[in-house]
TrEMBL record:
Subcellular location: Cytoplasm
E.C. designation(s): 6.1.1.17
Span(s) of short sequence motif 'KMSKS' region: 253-257
Keyword NAD in annotation: no
Protein family according to the UniProt entry: Belongs to the class-I aminoacyl-tRNA synthetase family. Glutamate--tRNA ligase type 1 subfamily.
Function: Catalyzes the attachment of glutamate to tRNA(Glu) in a two-step reaction: glutamate is first activated by ATP to form Glu-AMP and then transferred to the acceptor end of tRNA(Glu).
Alphabetized PANTHER family for the sequence: GLUTAMATE--TRNA LIGASE, GLUTAMATE--TRNA LIGASE, MITOCHONDRIAL-RELATED
UniProt keywords, alphabetically: Aminoacyl-tRNA synthetase, ATP-binding, Cytoplasm, Ligase, Nucleotide-binding, Protein biosynthesis
Protein name as catalogued: Glutamate--tRNA ligase
Length: 485
């Protein structure tokens, strides 16, 4: 395939805070396009209508732009193969699903969620891999027509070969073979008429002329499904490349439950986008010691997709800190440094709004740092003594933090109104007075029991920083409970 024909894409789902793993995959595709003189495309995969929001989509765009990535085609810049948002392409997919179905490779499934869950529970209890048991494969054409005409809810599933295995060559893992009996009869079209990720992904990659699909290794097991869909539609699959997952230092999967993973978190703490991209880009190149500090252009020049590691990309925060420090000291002029500091402090309007909130709470300007410095701190240095004025026992603190953290994740639009509403609802569910729940949150978020208004502060800090501070506060509370303090 000619280098000039290379077309790659990043296709995030707008269902939460953009993850550094998204930046990692996006950077690979961006550098791959640069290396081959190709085209880098952004596509929004929002087939999950219950979790996808315009707010999260905007956060995706903002985060990737902050990273310094530029796409030639996308929902914000358009292009010849749009729309670039799957919800805007809903009417495109049905014809492809019907083609698969009419050719005998798909079937209607009327199984209820209750039946499917009972089926999976039985399979798990028997030590088997949970997957669809083919119950609706035996329905006659007449029965299917009758149930469809009666308006009975149903999905369309794909048929899977009953023998043999799927063999393919991956750009990173080489020759791969996956038995067909380990592949589920994937839903292609949901009951609401929206395609599943797998169906839309294949159709969109075909229509957008994607030549190489580079994504995380967690999608390796889905390749047989995708190859089958291509075959059922009579299409040629792209080249698949599955990159090793980003991992913590202990080799566990990088996840927000263990460490901060949101791009916005690293932006809020004052990491430079150039340093973050430098750090991620080193996973894709071979360099000698002493050559670590690299611009995006230098990364593109050294980029080597033929020598990728399968051992896993370790997200070493100490190395990121070291690189970020070097970028601040060695790459920024005095004026650039001052400009970056002001831009960082003004991010999310936190400096201006923080000062406005402080005005009625101080008697002299010198009190400002002690009152509002938590808005700019990367680490509060929270200790058990910070909770000394809180009347709740350590055990009650643990209960509050363990309840509040996951419940706040349910908020789709992060602002002081939604935060207040959710915290009031949490207090009601816990059967506690609101002030009992809020008191430890003041300490967790600001490091002090005297601070700026809590809901406003949480909005200004942003979801990802609040998440991390609540996690740390929960750990401190747990240590207090464990020590009997």
């Amino acid at each position: 395939m000619a280098d000039s024909a290379v077309r790659v894409r990043i296709a995030p789902s707008p269902t939460g805070e953009p993850h550094v793993g998204t930046a990692y995959i996006a950077l690979f595709n961006y550098l791959f396009a640069k290396k081959h003189g190709g085209t880098f495309i952004l596509r929004i995969e929002d087939t999950d209508a219950t979790r996808s929001t315009p707010e999260f989509e905007q956060k995706v765009l903002d985060a990737l732009k902050w990273c310094g990535l530029e796409w030639s085609e996308g929902p914000d810049v358009g292009g010849p193969y749009g729309p670039y948002r799957q919800s805007d392409r809903k009417d495109i997919y049905l014809d492809y699903v019907r083609q698969i179905e009419n050719n005998g490779h798909g079937f209607r499934c009327f199984c209820t969620p209750e039946r499917l869950e009972q089926m999976r529970e039985g399979q798990r209890a028997a030590g088997k891999q949970p997957k669809y048991d083919g119950h609706c494969l035996s329905l006659t054409a007449e029965e299917v027509t009758r149930r469809v005409d009666a308006g009975e809810p149903h999905v369309v599933r794909m048929k899977i070969p009953t023998e043999g295995s799927c063999k393919f060559t991956d750009g990173v893992y080489g020759d791969v073979e996956i038995p067909w009996d380990s592949v589920d009869m994937q839903v292609l079209l949901k009951a609401d008429g929206m395609p599943t990720y797998h169906m839309a992904n294949v159709v969109d990659d075909y229509l957008m002329k994607i030549t190489h699909v580079a994504r995380g290794e967690e999608w390796l097991a889905s390749v047989p499904k995708h190859i089958l869909i291509y075959q059922y539609l009579g299409l040629t699959p792209p080249v698949f490349m599955h990159l090793s997952l980003m991992r913590n230092a202990d080799k566990s999967k990088l996840s927000k439950r263990k460490n901060p993973t949101s791009i916005s978190y690293y932006s809020a703490l004052g990491y430079l986008p150039e340093a973050l991209m430098n750090f991620l880009g080193l996973f894709f190149i071979q360099i000698a010691e002493g050559e670590e500090l690299m611009t995006m252009a230098e990364l593109a020049e050294k980029f080597d997709p033929d020598n990728l590691s399968k051992s896993g990309a370790i997200f070493d925060i100490q190395k990121l800190d070291w690189l970020n420090g070097r970028w601040i000291r060695e790459k920024l002029s005095d004026d650039e440094f001052l400009g970056r500091v002001l831009a960082w402090a003004s991010e999310n309007d936190r400096l201006k709004q923080g000062l406005k909130l402080s005005q009625s709470r101080i008697s002299k300007l010198g009190e400002l740092p002690a009152l509002a410095d938590f808005l700019l701190k990367s680490d509060l240095g929270l200790e058990p003594a910070a909770f000394a004025k809180i009347k709740s026992s350590p055990e009650e603190l643990v209960e509050i933090f363990n309840t509040v953290q996951p419940d706040l994740e349910k908020i789709l639009e992060w602002n002081k109104e939604t935060i207040e509403a959710e915290l009031r609802a949490i207090a009601d569910r816990m059967g506690k007075k609101l002030k009992v729940v809020l008191a430890p949150l003041f300490v967790a978020v600001s490091g002090s029991s005297r601070s700026l208004p809590l809901f406003d502060s949480m909005e200004l800090l942003g979801r990802s920083v609040v998440r991390q501070r609540l996690k740390i506060a929960g750990q401190v509370a747990a240590s207090m409970a464990g020590s009997g303090k």
